[in-house]
Amino acid sequence: MTAYVLVHGAWHGGWCWRRTADRLRMAGHEVYTPTLTGLGERAHLASPKIGLRTHVDDLLGVLTYEGLRDVVLVGHSYAGLVVREAADRMPERVSRITMVDAWAGQDGQSLEDLVPAFFRDWIDSVAVDGLIPPAPAGAVGVTEPDQVAWLEARLTPHPRQTFSEPTRLSGAVDTIDCRAVLCSPDGPMPFSHLAEKNGWESTVLHVGHDAMVTAPQALAETLLQDARSV
Question: Among 77, 95, 110, 184, which one carries the catalytic annotation?
């Protein structure tokens, strides 16, 4: 049995993994889907003071208080920064990292340092009181009407400081086996480049950025390869 910790990206919550997590559990694995502070069912805690470090501490709390070891950490999109920094701080608890269309920076880099200029401009244009409202579902590759309705009813504003606060890495994370799952390799974000730059083995799905919504079965089957590799 493998312990998976699935960490959602910006504007989402642990709820987004529901159908993927169900499939991993049916295969006999232990699955945790924490919601980061200020998002999802924790949206009542939203504050412009929430930064990347807050979310890293959220994840470290899950690893510590659940007593988890030999974990497969899965980070989607923004959460690539969260899982890598958490793994860097507790490498003894993590056996593998899987980056699902996820951002990865070097020590001292923030998400705003990594994203294309058009995305930074969009953040500047929509942020209000330190919070970034969610974009339409189509922006993350979700177009089926039922999926759009389900997703947009649950997305919440995201704390901007998590995008501007730099990641802090000692280098310990680079000793942990890591691979990338590329769900929108032909999209405008450089996830393929980041995987290549870091030398990660990559799996391509072509299912849209929010693979846990559009293709939970395909994503679960891909993540199950982690259990066989650990």
Answer: 77
